[in-house]
Fold:
Amino acid sequence: MDSNLGYAGGAPKARLPLLQRIGTQRVVRFLFGSAATISTLVIVLMLVFLGIYAFPAIRFNGLGILTQSVWNIGDQYGSGHVVRAGITAMQGAQFGGLVFVFGTVVTAFVAMLFAVPLSLLVAVALVYRVPPRLRPLVNAVVELMAGVPSVVYGLWGIVVLVPFIGQRLGPWTTEHLGFLPFLGGPAGSGNGLLASSVLLSLMAMPFMVATIRDVILAQEKSIFEASMALGSTSWQAVTKAVMPSVTNGIFAAVLVALGRALGETMAVLMVCGGAVGIFAQNIFQSVNTIAAVIVSQLESALTDPTGLAQKSLAELALMLFVITLFVNIVARLILHGADRSGEA
Amino acid sequence: MRKISAAALALAFVLTSAGSALAATKMLETGSSLVYPLMNLWVATYQKKNPSVEITTQSTGSGTGIAQAVSGVAQIGASDAYMSNGQLAQGKMLNIPLAISAQQINYNIPGLNNAHLNLSGPVLAGIYSGKITMWDNAQIKALNRSIASKLPHQTIIPIHRTDGSGDTFIFSQYLSFSTPSWKNGPGYGTSISWPAVATAVGANGNPGMVQTCQNTRYSIAYIGVSFLNQTNKAGLGFAALKNRAGRFVLPTASTISSAAGTLVGKTPNDERISLIFAPGANSYPIINYEYAIVNPKQANGQVANELKKFLNWAVDRNGGNSAHFLNAVRFIPLPASIVEKSRKQIASIKG
Structure:
């Protein structure tokens, strides 16, 4: 109370008119405006820096980084060099990133195959089926899942998921369901596409559940109730009336989650099997993602005296950056469109 | 994360050494996960006797060890591989042998893990290049006549290191020196372009190799001998390897010493030499010097002196090279002539 009294005293009174003169609105606008500018500027600067740093690699590799699948930093102990486009690399150097682009896209895509239907079901259940008194608990669990560091998911993957897939699920599936596409062939070690995608879907789910739940809640409940009043079952009401009205929101949520899955590093690195030069033929084989390969190859790249291996990793990073940026921008545009149509 | 923590340590090191001369001299050792178990034993004992120095050890892989010794983040970069001419052209670095190590080929074949399969360089090259895909392949059977009928018709899962690794260096050297097609193909290095094998799996560090091999039936892996206790505990088998003389030998103190004995005399003054695929009937084919990669120009005299003291202790038969330490990790001590050469290199470190 004392401090409050003091505050109500002389000094602040003298200050108030000043703030009024500048205009609270303007101050706030300036603060928010500069914060927004800085965050945009940081992204642009990162792009520029990566671009400049990776430029020799971009020239050396050309389109090869997208079309070739051999990643070879070159003969470290040989004395030869190879020069292309005026850029020097170690003899035999070849930086083909197709395997990593493939792994990045496929792990994220398969993760979405698991995560999207599950998240939809959980979100719908949260809105319409979970009793109101249990809702805070379920919401808390979903948010807790979002807060778990990815290395913890990775550790669980190594200790529980990988042995389970490698010793039970993989051998059983390839033996009994091997005639189906992507399920036949060698069962692998458990490290690979399936393990990576399961972890990614677990990490993507909390965000998707929360977003889809909010999108559904944002729609007026009347749609659901009106549909029920017209005699539909609750399943019909959800699938035929509610869902079509929130498709855009869900799609955007999926894209944002996809953007995160594309760049997820640690957990994937721990269970992906570090594939080199090979494209997984089934869901059990080793894969490698751009993010994982940057981490696992960085120290090898540091031993390249020409420095081109590092710069090629930077080029990969640039590609990942552009891919995720693109996915995020599309997601924002769709969300923005959804908001507009909601207003209209 | 490793880099960040290493950078933080380096920063702490700079701050403290600038702050007061009385504080303990801090040094960072990083690199080879094969040397790490030994460094742990060494540092614990050494620091008890020398409270004026504080050494932090990290298991990060030989690639990082070399890179961080060059960049100055670490005072000692531990590596199973000596540096290449190309790397040394960037700036002078010392390659100081600390001990002699070896590498075993581990496998996980239920029922055969106590049998010590016979394997050769060409067969391993065949496995790692995807030409030999089944454990009951005729070439493997031919090397293991007594247990040929027990070899399972199962797909081999070759495990390799994904990080820059001295173990990859010595393993790929064994394949290169024994198999012309490997030499002209992937070749050798701390990081090589592995042939595309559908079932291949990458693992991180020696601990990752042990774990993946243990988790994966019908897999095969190359793992540093300092992890032999762990691989035995994990129930993995280890192979007898075909040496240059055509005999199959297991990695024991006797076979590692024999191999070293044939090649140490050829060690040059900068001590960069491969001990792989040594001649001699009793020589184990995958042995190597474990190197401390050190910058001859250290940050200041105090660090240089403490570093020299520690390295001289490490190569001493009554210090770090005593049986007490080396037996625990199955390394063998440096021969006297190599200790002399290492001491000469250590003496050239300046502040």
Observations:
- Chain B touches chain A through 43 residues (CB under 8 Å).
- The longest strand of chain B covers residues 94-108.
